[in-house]
Design goal:
Radius of gyration of chain B: 21 Å
Largest sheet of chain B: 5 strands, mixed, barrel
Structural class of chain A: alpha+beta
Radius of gyration of chain A: 26 Å
Strand content of chain B: 25-35%
Strand order of the largest sheet of chain B: 2-4-5-7-6
Helix content of chain B: 25-40%
Distance between the termini of chain A: 52 Å
Shape of chain B: elongated
CATH superfamily of the largest domain in chain B: Nucleic acid-binding proteins
Oligomer: heterodimer
CATH architecture of the largest domain in chain B: Beta Barrel
Number of strands of chain A: 11
CATH topology of the largest domain in chain B: OB fold (Dihydrolipoamide Acetyltransferase, E2P)
Largest sheet of chain A: 6 strands, antiparallel
Shape of chain A: globular
Chain lengths: 656, 148
C-alpha cells in the first residue's frame, strides 16, 4: 500500500510542478501578483510529496518489502540496517528519486527564505526550477519507476552490490547530488535574469551563496568518492580519470569558475554575460554527468545496468534545457551592459584568466571523456583515453592556474602593478626554489614533475600566507589581532580554500611521483621491507561479519625495530551474490599511508600480498577538507548569508 | 583601455589557450590513446610490440594458471573464436574469474603473449564492459539477454 502512495505522491508532485512552471511565469509577464504568489506554496508542496515518496521508498527498503522490484534487486534481509536505508539510493531508480528530492529541497528553500528577492525574479526562478523538476519527474515516472511491483515477490532480495555496502554509500551520493543539483539554482537564477533582461550586483549577491553551497557539497562529494575508492577498491589509487569521475569533475571546474566570476559581477558590475553562460554550462555539465552515469554509453565502473531508452530521454532533456537556455542567452546577452571598466592587469583580469584556464581545463576533460564515443561514432575504432592524456594536457593548464592563483589576490581591482605584486611574492619565490632544490636533492632520480608539483604547491601555499599576513600586517601583535578580527569571513574562506588547494596539490604530487609498491607471495613469518618499514606477515584467520565471511591477514609493521602498527587487510565474500571484495588496511603517519591488500590464500598456504607506500596521500584529504572548510566559512559571511542583504538595498533594486 | 579593445584582449587570450589545448591534444593523440582489440583482431592485425593497447573478452574456462611465485598468473582471453594468452603480475580484481568479461591493458610481447599492466574486471555482476560485448558481437558469439 505504501509504495502505491509513494507513486501517487510522485504524480501529484509532477502536477504541482507543471502548475509551478506556468502560473508564475505568466504572472510575472503580466504583472499578476496572485499568479506569481502560487510559486512558493507549489514549491513547498512539491517538497512534501517528493519527500513522502522518498520516505515511502526508504520504508520499503528498511522493512525489506521484496514485492517492490528495486528492493528485491538491491537489498537483502541480512543487511545491516544502515545499508538497507542507504540502499535506497544505491541503484538507478532510487538515486533519481534522491536527485529530485534535493531539487525540491532547493526549490522550497528559495520559496520559503527568498522573501527579499524581487517578486518577479523569485517567481521566474521558481518557474525555471519547476521546469527541471518536470523533466526529471517525467523521466522517473516514464522510464524508471522506483515503485514498480513484482508479480511474484522473491523470498529474499538479491542483495546490494557488496562494494556499496560501506559507510561511503551513506554520504558520497547525497553530497555529490547536492552539488550537481545545487548548480540548478545558479542555472535557474541565470535563466530568470535572462528572461527579465537584468543582471546586477544584487543578483550576484543572491546567486553566490547558492553556488558556493553547491560547490562545497560537490567538493566534499568528489573527495568522499575518491577516498572511498581509495580504501574500498584496494587498487592503491585515488583517481582514475574514469568517465564518471570526470563527469563530476567537469561541473566542479566550471562551478569553481562561476564562483569566481560571480565575485566580479558583484563587486565590479562586469563580466555579466560570461557569468550567465557559466551558470548555464555548469548545470549543463551536471546534466551531462547524469547522462553519462545513467545511459551507459561509456564504459565505467559506475555504470548501472544500462537501458538505451533512459539515455535517449536524458539526452533529450539535456538538449531542451541547454539548447533552450543558450538560445535565450544568445537573444538576451547583447542587451546586458557591463558597468565597471578595468585594465587587463588587475584583479578582474586575473579572475578572467582563472576562468579561462578552468574552462579550457573543462574542455580538455570533456574531449578526453567523449573521445571514445566520437571515435566509435566516426568508426575510428574502439579507443580508451587514460591517465597519460590527462597528465599531458590537463596538467599544464592546472599548473598555470596555480601560478596565477597565488598572484591574483594581491592585485587590486581595476588597475594593478604586476611587478609590484611579484615583488611582494619574493618570499614565496624563495621558498619555492628552496623546496624544489630540497626535493631534487632528496629524490634525485625521481620524476621531474615531482619537483614541479612540489614547487607549485609551495608557491601557492606561501603566496596565500603572504597575502593573508599582508592583510593583517605583522608589526604589532595587538594591531594584527584587531585587523584579523575585522577581516570579513569571505577573506578567511579564500585563504583557507587556496591553502587547501596548495596542500592537496602537494599530496597529489607526492602520491603520483613517489608511490612505492611490492607484490609478493608471503607465508606466516615472512617479512618484506618497503620504504623503510618492515612488514611481518603473521598469517590469516577466518572471521565472520553480519552478512559476509572474511579472510583476515595480520601484518606487524615495524620501523628500525620499533613497532608502528598492526594492519588487518581482509578479503571478504558476500554469499548472497557470491561476490568477493577487498578491504585494504591503511595506516596513516600524516606524511604517508601504509596500505596493505591481500588475496585469498592458495592451496600451499601462500598469500599474495600487495603493499603500497603512499607518500602524502593524507594531504589530499586534508587539503580538500580545508577547501570545504573555506567554503563554509565564506558561506557564513554576513554579506552572503542567504537572505541577509540589507532591506534598503533590496528595495532599491526592486524599484523598476 | 576601451571595453571593445579589452574584450578583444580577453578573447585573444582565450583563443590562445584553446589553441594550446588543441595542439597539446593532437600531440598527445599519438602516445596516449589506447586502442582496443578483440582477440580475433589481435591475431589478424600487425601490431608493433611495445605499443600500449587493450584487449577484451571472456576469461577462457580452465585457462588460469598461477606461477610458482604466486603473484604471476597466466590466462587466456577469448571472444569464443580466438583466444590470446595473457600474463599478469599482481593481484587480480575481485570479480576476475573464468567465463567472465575482462579488459586487459598492456603490450604485446615478442612471442604474441599479451603482457598486461592492468586487468579491469567489472564492479558489478550485472554489468559487462561495452567493449567485450562488441567483441563478442563481432565474433558472432553474442547472445542477447544471456550475458554471462
Amino acid at each position: 500500500m505504501i509504495p502505491e502512495l509513494g507513486q501517487v505522491a510522485l504524480v501529484l508532485a509532477l502536477a504541482l510542478a507543471l502548475m509551478q512552471v506556468v502560473l508564475p511565469l505568466v504572472g510575472a509577464a503580466r504583472d499578476n501578483a496572485s499568479w506569481m504568489a502560487v510559486a512558493p506554496p507549489a514549491a513547498q508542496g512539491q517538497l512534501f510529496f517528493i519527500g513522502f515518496a522518498f520516505l515511502a521508498l526508504m520504508q520499503a527498503y528498511v522493512s525489506s518489502d521484496f514485492s517492490v522490484a528495486v528492493v528485491a534487486d538491491n537489498s537483502n534481509s541480512a543487511m545491516p540496517l544502515i545499508y538497507k536505508a542507504a540502499a535506497t539510493w544505491g541503484n538507478h531508480e532510487g538515486s533519481l528519486l534522491l536527485w529530485v528530492l534535493i531539487l525540491a529541497i532547493f526549490g522550497a528553500a528559495v520559496g520559503t527564505f527568498g522573501n527579499n528577492l524581487p517578486p518577479k525574479l523569485k517567481a521566474r526562478v521558481l518557474s525555471v526550477q519547476a521546469m527541471i523538476a518536470v523533466g526529471f519527474l517525467a523521466f522517473m515516472l516514464l522510464t524508471s519507476n522506483p515503485f514498480a511491483r513484482l508479480g511474484q515477490p522473491p523470498a529474499d532480495g538479491a542483495d546490494l552490490n557488496p562494494l556499496l555496502q560501506d559507510p561511503g554509500l551513506a554520504f558520497h551520493p547525497p553530497m555529490l547530488y547536492l552539488g550537481y543539483v545545487g548548480f540548478s539554482m545558479a542555472f535557474s537564477f541565470a535563466v530568470a535574469a535572462l528572461i527579465e533582461g537584468r543582471v546586477d550586483a544584487a543578483w550576484a549577491r543572491w546567486v553566490r551563496p547558492w553556488t558556493l553551497a553547491a560547490w562545497i557539497a560537490l567538493t566534499a562529494g568528489i573527495t568522499g568518492g575518491s577516498w572511498w575508492s581509495y580504501y574500498e577498491l584496494g587498487w592503491g589509487g585515488w583517481w582514475a580519470w574514469d568517465p564518471v569521475e570526470n563527469a563530476s569533475f567537469m561541473p566542479w571546474l566550471l562551478g569553481t569558475a562561476l564562483l569566481h566570476s560571480a565575485i566580479v559581477v558583484e563587486k565590479r558590475d562586469a563580466l555579466k554575460s560570461w557569468t550567465m553562460l557559466l551558470a548555464i554550462l555548469t548545470f549543463g555539465m551536471s546534466l551531462v554527468g547524469t547522462f553519462l552515469v545513467r545511459s551507459g554509453v561509456l564504459t565505467s565502473v559506475h555504470a548501472f545496468a544500462t537501458d538505451p531508452a533512459r539515455g535517449v530521454f536524458i539526452l533529450l532533456l539535456l538538449v531542451v534545457a541547454i539548447g533552450g537556455s543558450l538560445t535565450l542567452f544568445a537573444i538576451r546577452a547583447p542587451t546586458l551592459r557591463d558597468g565597471g571598466l578595468f585594465q587587463p592587469i588587475s584583479r578582474e583580469g586575473a579572475l578572467i584568466l582563472n576562468n579561462l584556464l578552468l574552462a579550457v581545463g573543462c574542455v580538455v576533460v570533456f574531449l578526453g571523456t567523449f573521445m571514445p564515443l566520437f571515435a566509435d561514432v566516426l568508426q575510428l575504432g574502439a579507443i580508451s583515453v587514460g591517465a597519460p592524456y590527462y597528465f599531458l594536457i590537463f596538467n599544464p593548464f592546472a599548473a598555470l592556474l596555480v601560478v596565477v592563483t597565488a598572484i591574483g589576490p594581491l592585485l587590486p581591482w581595476k588597475r594593478a602593478d604586476l611587478a609590484g605584486a611579484l615583488q611582494r611574492l619574493t618570499i614565496a619565490a624563495i621558498a619555492t626554489l628552496l623546496v624544489a632544490g630540497l626535493v631534487w636533492w632528496l629524490k634525485t632520480g625521481g620524476p621531474l614533475f615531482g619537483i614541479l608539483g612540489a614547487a607549485l604547491g609551495t608557491w601557492l601555499l606561501v603566496g596565500t600566507v603572504v597575502e593573508f599576513v599582508e592583510r593583517i600586517g605583522l608589526r604589532a601583535p595587538a594591531e594584527a589581532l584587531r585587523r584579523a578580527r575585522q577581516l570579513p569571513r569571505a577573506a578567511y574562506g579564500m585563504t583557507l580554500a587556496h591553502a587547501g588547494l596548495a596542500i592537496a596539490i602537494l599530496g597529489m604530487t607526492g602520491s603520483a611521483a613517489w608511490k612505492q609498491e611490492e607484490i609478493r607471495t608471503m607465508r606466516a613469518g615472512d617479512t618484506v621491507s618497503l620504504a623503510g618499514y618492515d612488514y611481518r606477515f603473521d598469517g590469516v584467520a577466518d572471521v565472520a561479519g553480519p552478512n559476509y565471511t572474511a579472510t583476515r591477514g595480520t601484518f606487524t609493521v615495524t620501523k628500525e625495530g620499533a613497532p608502528v602498527v598492526t594492519l588487518h587487510p581482509e578479503k571478504r565474500v558476500y554469499p548472497v551474490q557470491g561476490m568477493p571484495t577487498t578491504e585494504a588496511a591503511i595506516h596513516t603517519t600524516g606524511l604517508a599511508d601504509l596500505y596493505a591488500v591481500i588475496d585469498t590464500p592458495d592451496a600451499a598456504g601462500g598469500v599474495a600480498v600487495h603493499l603500497y607506500h603512499q607518500p602524502l596521500v593524507p594531504w589530499i584529504w586534508g587539503g580538500a577538507f580545508l577547501m570545504v572548510l573555506g567554503g563554509l566559512v565564506s558561506l557564513s559571511d554576513r554579506r552572503l548569508r542567504v537572505g541577509a542583504p540589507s532591506r534598503r538595498r533590496v528595495m532599491a533594486v526592486a524599484r523598476p | 583601455m576601451r571595453p571593445k579593445r579589452r574584450r578583444l584582449v580577453f578573447v585573444a587570450a582565450g583563443m590562445l589557450l584553446l589553441g594550446a589545448a588543441a595542439a597539446l591534444t593532437l600531440y598527445a593523440m599519438n602516445d596516449s590513446l589506447v586502442f582496443f582489440y578483440s582477440p580475433s583482431d589481435l591475431a589478424v592485425k600487425q601490431i608493433p610490440a611495445g605499443r600500449m593497447l587493450r584487449v577484451g573478452g571472456l576469461v577462457e574456462v580452465g585457462s588460469i594458471v598461477h606461477d610458482g611465485d604466486g603473484t604471476t598468473v597466466h590466462f587466456r582471453v577469448t571472444d569464443l573464436k580466438t583466444a590470446v594468452p595473457v600474463v599478469y603480475k599482481g593481484i587480480l580484481p575481485d570479480l576476475f574469474r573464468e567465463g567472465q568479461g575482462v579488459v586487459a591493458q598492456g603490450t604485446l610481447g615478442p612471442d604474441k603473449t599479451f603482457v598486461a599492466a592492468e586487468v579491469l574486471a567489472k564492479h558489478d555482476e550485472k554489468y559487462m564492459p561495452k567493449e567485450v560485448v562488441d567483441a563478442l558481437k563481432k565474433s558472432g558469439r553474442w547472445q542477447e539477454g544471456t550475458a554471462p
